[in-house]
Amino acid sequence: MGFCNISRSVLLPVMVALLAGLWACDDKKVMKHMPKQDPLKPVEWSGVKKVMGQKVYVPVYSSVRAPVKTKYVHMTATLSIHNISPVSAIVISKIDYHDINGKLIRRFIDEPFEMEPLATKEFVVEEKDVYGGSGASFIVDWQATQKASIPIIESVMISTAQGRGISMISRGKEIETF
User: Fold this and answer.
1) pLDDT digits (tens, 9 = 90+) for 84-124
2) Do residues 121 and 37 touch, judged by C-beta distance below 8 A?
């Protein structure tokens, strides 16, 4: 039996499996070189003179309505905090996650931590965590002991459910200045 005599119903799954295997191998090579996020570096923050800071509201769409109005597509949401200052560290003192009604669901940190210049920290709400609903949000407090660039704080939501790729980004909005 030659290659041309193999039925399409057999050939297609075999080809898909081979391509998926090659893609997985390549992904493992790439991931081996991808840097891991450093652990949070707690800081003693009480009594320290703060020069600047903000309270930032970040919208999160961890669940969005599907084309069928009674169904939702659930997404993994990542809060991403970028210290864009090339010279100044900042301190993150609060990361709270709230549901669609404003109720506190979870505190992501128990104590303030320092972010080095140009560092990024990520905090994830898994796709299966539907407690936030379609209008969830993060409240993030940051401060600095010297003049610093205002960090970029955003949420990135993604889902590949139902054979579709859906992704969104929401930028944080300052709601208070310290």
Assistant:
1) 999 999 999 999 999 999 999 999 999 999 999 999 999 99
2) yes
Other CB atoms within 10 Å distance of the CB of residue 153: 24
- Record the pTM: 0.79
User: The dihedral of CA 42, 45, 46, 52: what is its sign?
Assistant: negative
Write a three-state SS string for the chain.
Answer: CCHHHCCHHHHHHHHHHHHHHHHHHHHHHHHHHCCCCCCCEECCCCCCCCCEEEEEEEEECCEEECCCCCCEEECEEEEEEECCCCCCCEEEEEEEEECCCCCEEEECCCCCEEECCCCEEEEEECCCCCCCHHHEEEEEEEEECCCCCCCEEEEEEEECHHHCCEEEEEECEEEEEC
Residue extents of the structural domains in the chain? 3-33, 41-177
Residues 6+ apart with CB under 8 A from 132: 60, 62, 63, 77, 97, 98, 99, 100, 105, 125
CATH placement of domain 41-177: 2.60.40
